[in-house]
Every structure is written in structure tokens, then in C-alpha cells.
Model the fold of this input.
Amino acid sequence: MCGWAQLFLGRFESAIPHLIEAFDRFRDLDFPDGELRTANALGSLLARIGEYEEAIREFTRVCSAARELGNIDREVAALTNLGETYSSMREDEKAEAILTQALDICTDPSVICVIRSHLGRVLQQTGRNAPASVQLVAALEECEKMDDQVTKVDVLTTLGWNALESDPLSAATALDAAIALSRRIEYASGEAGAVRAMHELFLRSGNLEKAESSLGELYDICSNSDIRPQWDSLADGLVQAYADAGDDKGAVRVARRMLAAYREESQTDVARRIRATRARHE
Done:
């Protein structure tokens, strides 16, 4: 299975050798577009495992190389990934500026849809729910037109986050749809993101049993992939919610179950392997 497919399924460790092999082959063939595409994928992998500074360096290199080659498609892809990475780091001002730059030069409707989705999330994170909804609804309409189901999952999830406090019922509807679609197309990281949002919805509404169930569900999803949410902080939040509600048994149950399930990551090793591969070509 190719590296891009492994990334889609959330099998990040498995993606590494495929992507490295692809990068080497494109370099040997003197095929810059392939090199840039693969470097973008490696950057995405780094961002997914939380190695944000490494990912930023990768995307920045791709942006510079693509601009020199006049390859707008790869430049837009790198800018979009760079903006999403800054968004994950909660550097929202940088994320918004970079995503807006990508949107300004992009001409591909399918990519515009993705950029709008990320931009909507940045606006949502900064509390600008109204403009966020404008971007997200526009992205959702484009997804429907192009039958882009992967991006649709991400947009629905962001719409769910956007409505968590203002309209919990609409949030639940959007997240239910995102979860169902992600399962149908076997989009593991998309499913994990939607279930994570649903967990937050249950937690905020005080439905602790469903919050616990969704957290266990999230663990099951991620056990079959290399997707690793922050189990300790998620478990701590639910333990504290049970404790605040006076349910000591619930707090102890979650602490035992989820903290025992938390596993030490090999993410730094993944990043080291990618850095070593990049160094061979510099």
C-alpha cells in the first residue's frame, strides 16, 4: 500500500518507508513535482505526530522550491499544510495569514474547499463563529458538488466544534454525520477527530457516561492506527468531571482504564528517521 494511503488510514509509521522510497525515486528520476509532493506528505506526517517545528521547516522548504519552479499547485499545498500546522499550534494569526495567502493564489476548486475548511477552523478557534460558518458552509457546498467525502468529514467536524456551545443539537447532528461518513470511507484520522469533538460535546453537556463511552471508542479507533490523541489530558478532564459531580467511582474507573491505556509514543524516533533521510539529500 502506498505512503499516501497509509497516511489516509492513520498508519503513520507504515507510511514512512513508502514515502522515503518515493522521495528517493523521484530524486533519481529528476522529477521535482514528485519530490515536492512527497516532501509535503512527509511534512504532514510530522505535523500529525506533533513534530510541528520539523513540519514547518519541511513545508517552508517546499514553498521556496515550488515558488522557484513556478509550481503553484505544490506551493498552495505547502502553504495550506503550513497554515494547518500553525493552527494546530494555536498560532492563529499566522495560520490565518498563510491560509489567506493560499486562498488568494489557488485556482483549483477542490483545494479551495480544503483551504476554506482550515480557515473556518482558525476563525472558530479565535471565537469568530459567524465568519467561520461562512467559510465552512461554502466549503461544505463545494464538497457536495465535487463529492469530496474526505474534506466533507473534516468540514462537518469543524462545524460541530463551531456549534458546541451555541447550538449543541446542530453540533451533534454534524458530528454524527461526520462519524458515519468517516466510517463508510474508512477515514481513520477523520473519524478520530469527529469522535474527539463528540466526546467534548458530551463532557460539556454533563453526560459523563457517554463522554466515557466516546473516549473508549476513540481509544479503539486509534489502537488500529498511529493516531495518538493526548490520552492523559483527555482522561484527566473526564476524571475531574466525575470528581466535580461527586462520582468518585466513575473518576477511579476512568483513571484506571484510560491512564493504563496511555502508551509512550515513538514520535521522536519517527521524526529522527525523517530528519536523517532528509539530511542524505541536502
Notes: Confidence is low (pLDDT under 50) at residues 263-270.
